[in-house]
Amino acid sequence: MSWWLLYKNKDADDELNLTDLGSVMGKGQIVAGCIAPHPPHLVYAENPPQNEPVAEGGWEQLRWGYERLRDSLADKEYDAIVLLSPHWQTYVGTHFLGLPQFEGLSVDPIFPNLFRYHYDMTVDVELAKAIHDEAEAAGLPVKMMENPDFRVDYGTITTGHLFNPDWDKPIVVISSNRSTAYYSVEVMQEIMVELGKATRKAIEASGKKVVVLASNSLSHRHFTTESEMPEDMSKEHITSHAMHLWDMRIIEYMRTGQSQRILDEMPEFTEQAIAESDGGGISWLLSTLDTPDYPAILHGYGTIIGTGNAVVEWPCYQHEVTAA
Amino acid sequence: MSEGGIVASFVVPVHPHTVLAPDQNPGWRKLRDAYDDAAATIKDLNADLIIIYSTTWPSIIGHQIQADPNPEWVLVDHDFHDLGSISYSFNIDAAFAHAWNDASEKRGLQSRCVNYKGFPIDVGSVVALTLLNPDNKIPAVIVSSNMYANRSETTVLAKSCLDVVKAQGRRAVAVTAMSLSNRMFTDFIDAKQDKIHSLKDDEWNRKILEFLEQGRMEDVGQLSRTIHQQIRVQKVVAFKPMWWLSAMNGNRNDLTGKVLAYEAIHGAGCAVVHIDPTPSGAGEKEYDEDDVEYFHGERGVLDSGEEDSADTQHEHEQPSDGGQKIERNGPALWDPTEAEGSVNTDAAPKPVGAYPHARKVGDMLFLSGVGPRQPGTNAIPGGPIHDENGEPLDYDIKAQTHAVVDNVKRIVEEAGATMDQVVDVTTFLVDMKRDFSGYNEVWAQTLGKVGPTRTTLAIDALPTPIAVEMKVIVHLGE
User: Fold this and answer.
1) Which one in A55, A74, A87, B227 has a CA-CA gap of 20 to 30 Å to B355?
2) How close B199 comes to chain A (CA, Å)?
3) How confident is the model at residue B329 (pLDDT cuts 50, 70, 90)?
């Protein structure tokens, strides 16, 4: 039993048994878990010095959402970021960046006109290896990525930049195992729930304070044309009313602490909203957070080239017992 | 300058094993040797252009065409990074890329050239160009695989490419970088134990290769949707490269094919196939799907809210390049609804209300009323029955009836069924006295040969200016 479950069950006891708690929890802690979408448009619109193209703004609702997320966690101490990216797609197991430093130029193969970003990131290899080992012990196929020529995917870089523009925290990057592409959303979710449990276990054992990020959109039907000026917000809207309804339904579950319903409806959501949840990020995140039954904070919602995107935070620090 | 054309086509695998680790498995070595044979053939043919359609370069905003004259970088595969890195420096024909882009736009496609330092050329293109063009002497061009593109869009993409090949008098080689079955093992395996993922995948692969060896490229294209459903990972990249390659070869079934190798790479079906345009003598066979010249599909969606605001539209849209008119004589068009079991296709005309093209219930398929309007253009073969002011027009009931049957066929086939599974038809005619005879004649030539039960009713009017509509029921079972 995790220390969070011990805490949740404490009402059955007169008082939380801190001795038992201490025996299982180690000193690691998940400070917060977030859905942090990665469309490159958000970086493009912000004009950071690392990105070559220049924009006249755009997608402010989401960029300000990221700003609110950063403000929300500004006074929280944490040691590392753990991020699962649907744009590092692996079909043979789950992979982890396994070298301490990656730098180079990331060009989005789909929107190269928007995203040509010079990155330099530090990896928490120790924590990555710890999650790798826990996942392996749970029976999942896993591999450390130790090729120095590897180019980090743009989803990781976009979410990494928007969550932490200073890049001053080491990061663990987990690939998206495309199990759903072979079998079904249900199989994907089984694997991702196991990976989430392993992630949580490794974090708890690591003694580190960690923020967990699922780099994910919600509904994911794109427009197939682009405005002459991509940041022309008069052209931006959800692709269909059905997509809007699905996005709001899932966000409402998040806002009202109904994580289990999100997991229960994942197959329908993924299929009918063509949702990016097929990459497993949301299932993994909710599992890592132990399927939270407390409300998440919606920092922002908006569409990007028709897809639905939300910046959402589960403030674990308010709900879980701290080790300190 | 002589007219250019396709001097050879190749199907080649995408995974990096043939470059980085051919000797770890005898099958990988066979694929590598076949790749080398293909490179020698291309050299012997004096080809002056290699055109790569890569399934590992997905795109969203139409098709993208590589236009950096000399892209250089180091590729590491997302899955097989432990095999090593592939440095590349390619010779891209940027002028051809731009001409292809222009030709695509003229045919109604959304496309764009990309020319950015550090652009991540995909693994399929890197492997194919590294092995097929080892000394980099032959200029190349690479095009993406649009994740939303349907058959018509992919076919028109090939035709726009051929426009330029012919105009420039090029001796071009067309290459699809692709797997056959693309299901890999989901766990790590000993390289020596590699094999096709499943017997079913293997059997489908061998059937595809049998067709290709017989030069039946168009037949493979016709089977593309079925193949995708049977042996392909479902999302992102369908088995659409065969649409492209078939169109690049004139949608023929009398080509000369040769399978140079067929092996597994981590479970996926991988083959090197040479398609020679020389007629095999087998004779041209029926080509029974629309041979699309101009793309009329979903475009301009960013403006759809403004366009659809009117309840009734009567304007005739004329593309700036002189393409076909989009007829708007009638009610506004809707996207088909997508409730459970719905079957919808871009190959059928858009609905005039909130309903799907068809809906499956158990082993039955129920079609919404189908008229003769054409997908994309909304035109009515045989002409409308009245003009925009309601004044009667002369029209051809036989042409309208043929068009209805064609639309029914497209919807039925989208559901994975065939016309001989149609069991019941209700036909609505707006002028029984005038039209029954002509309609009945076309019926006898088409659905009458299948033998469904039929009821024909006279009605006052239909929502669009058409004379005939059919309500069809299909039994999907044995």
Assistant:
1) B227
2) 16
3) low
Average pLDDT over residues A193-206: 97
Q: Where in chain B is the domain with CATH 3.40.830.10?
A: 5-276
* CATH homologous superfamily for the domain B325-475: RutC-like (3.30.1330.40)
CATH class, B5-276 region:
alpha beta
Bridge partners of A297, per DSSP, are A313
The boundaries of every CATH 3.30.1330.40 domain in chain B are 325-475
Q: Where are the domains of chain A?
A: 30-319
A-chain residues near B305 (CB < 8 A): 237
For residue B292, the model assigns a pLDDT of 78
Report ipTM (2 d.p.). 0.89
Looking at the complex, report in whole angstroms how far the Cα of residue A111 sits from the nearest Cα belonging to chain B: 8
Give the H or E element holding residue B16: none
CA–CA dist B144, B56 (Å, integer)? 8
pLDDT digits (tens, 9 = 90+) for B185-240: 989 999 999 999 999 999 999 999 999 999 999 899 888 888 888 887 665 556 88
| Chain A, nearest residue to B82 by Cα | A147
Q: Which residue, A89, A157, A226, A110, is CA-closest to B57?
A: A110
Q: Assign 3-class secondary structure to chain A.
A: CCHHHHHHHHHHCCCCCHHHHHHHHCCCEEEEEEECCCCCHHHHHHCCCCECCCCCCCCHHHHHHHHHHHHHCCCCCCCEEEEEEEEEEECCCEEEECCCEEEEEEECCCCCCCCEEEEEEEECHHHHHHHHHHHHHCCCCEEEECCCCCCCCHHHHHHHHHHCCCCCCCEEEEEEECHHHHCCHHHHHHHHHHHHHHHHHHHHHHCCEEEEEECCCCCCCCCCCCCCCCCCHHHCCCCCHHHHHHHHHHHHHHHCCCHHHHHHCHHHHHHHCCCHHHHCHHHHHHHHCCCCCCCCEEEEEEEECCEEEEEEEECHHHHCCCCC
Coil vs helix vs strand at B164: helix
A30 in Cβ contact with A200 (< 8 Å): yes
Instruction: Considering only the beta carbons, identify the residue of B61, B114, B266 that sits closest to A224.
Output: B61
CB contact under 8 A, B235 and A237: no
CA angle A55, A56, A57 (to 5 degrees): 90
Q: Which of residues 66-125 of A touch B (CB under 8 A)?
A: 88-93, 95, 104-107, 109-113, 116
Phi, psi values for residue B427, rounded to 5°: -110, 140
In the predicted model, what is the mean pLDDT of residues B367-373? 95
Please tell me the pTM assigned to this model: 0.76
pLDDT at A9 over 50: no
Residues A271, A8: Cα–Cα separation, whole Å: 33
Q: Treating both helix axes as pointing N-terminal to C-terminal, what angle do B123-132 and B26-44 enclose, rounded to 10 degrees?
A: 60
pLDDT band at residue A16, thresholds of 50, 70 and 90?
A: very low
Length of chain A: 324
Whether CATH 3.40.50.300 fits A30-319: no
The residue of B60, B115, B142, B335 whose CB has the most chain A CBs within 10 angstroms, and thus the best one to mutate to test that interface, is: B60
Chosen from A41, A85, A91 to mutate, greatest number of chain B CBs within 10 A: A91
Scanning every residue of chain A, which has its alpha carbon at the shortest distance from the alpha carbon of B234? A181
How close B35 comes to chain A (CA, Å)? 24
